[in-house]
Design brief:
Number of strands: 8
Mean pLDDT: 80
Helix content: 25-40%
Strand order of the largest sheet: 3-2-1-5
Distance between the termini: 128 Å
Largest sheet: 4 strands, antiparallel
Structural class: alpha+beta
Number of helices: 2
Strand content: 15-25%
Radius of gyration: 41 Å
Low-confidence stretches: 1-21
Length: 217
């Protein structure tokens, strides 16, 4: 009958309500915790790390020191090369003799030739050929400071006291070689890191790797 059918439907609906699965949103949330994977260093591990750092630093120090010295040698040879080129250019431009010489007081108001090349050097026009700067007739082109450190410059040829460029750019009687080195000059393994500035008769200069034949002071 209709009444019995209706009653059965309500009963079924009631059962569905009673046994319906609760939604996910109504379920209690459970937080899962993982044990921490981080932990501190033990004293033994710390000592090992410190020892490894010390060993690595000790091994790298000599190589780093040699690298710095090599860079200083390269810089010094390039600076001397640049000054020689300046002296030659000035001689040709002014059509007057130009001198580059070592100077132990290159930073002074009136510098003079003297001393060693590593003490510094000056470049000036020497119209009267007396080897001294006589302003205002003669121009002081450059006052290069001392190289510092352990850099030394040896010479082969008549280059110990000065180089004189003629108005056409040549250096008759002053062609030779500058040897740029440092306190490792006696170490054959480091001789390849030395540099030489070779000055030709025509007044042109170039930088070459040291071959050990040019003596260092």
């Amino acid at each position: 009958s209709e009444s019995s059918a209706g009653g059965g439907a309500r009963s079924l609906s009631f059962r569905l309500v009673l046994f319906s699965v609760p939604s996910v949103s109504n379920r209690p949330h459970t937080l899962r915790t993982c044990p921490s994977l981080q932990r501190g260093l033990t004293l033994t591990e710390l000592i090992v790390v410190i020892a490894l750092v010390g060993i690595t630093t000790t091994m790298a120090a000599p190589s780093f020191s040699n690298l710095l010295k090599n860079q200083r040698i390269t810089a010094a040879s390039n600076e001397l090369l640049t000054s020689l080129m300046l002296a030659r250019s000035s001689a040709i431009t002014t059509r007057g003799q130009t001198v580059i010489c070592p100077s132990s007081n290159s930073a002074a108001a009136k510098p003079a030739c003297g001393g060693s090349w590593e003490d510094g050097w000056i470049v000036f026009t020497d119209l009267d050929g007396d080897g001294e700067v006589t302003p205002p007739q003669e121009t002081l082109w450059e006052q290069h400071p001392a190289l510092g450190g352990t850099i030394k410059i040896g010479t082969v040829g008549n280059l110990a006291t000065r180089v004189r460029f003629q108005p056409i750019g040549t250096v008759p009687g002053f062609n030779g070689t500058f040897a740029i080195c440092d306190d490792r000059a006696d170490d054959s393994a480091q001789r390849a890191n030395m540099r030489e500035v070779v000055l030709a008769f025509a007044g042109r200069a170039r930088v070459e790797k040291g071959n050990g034949e040019t003596a260092c002071p």
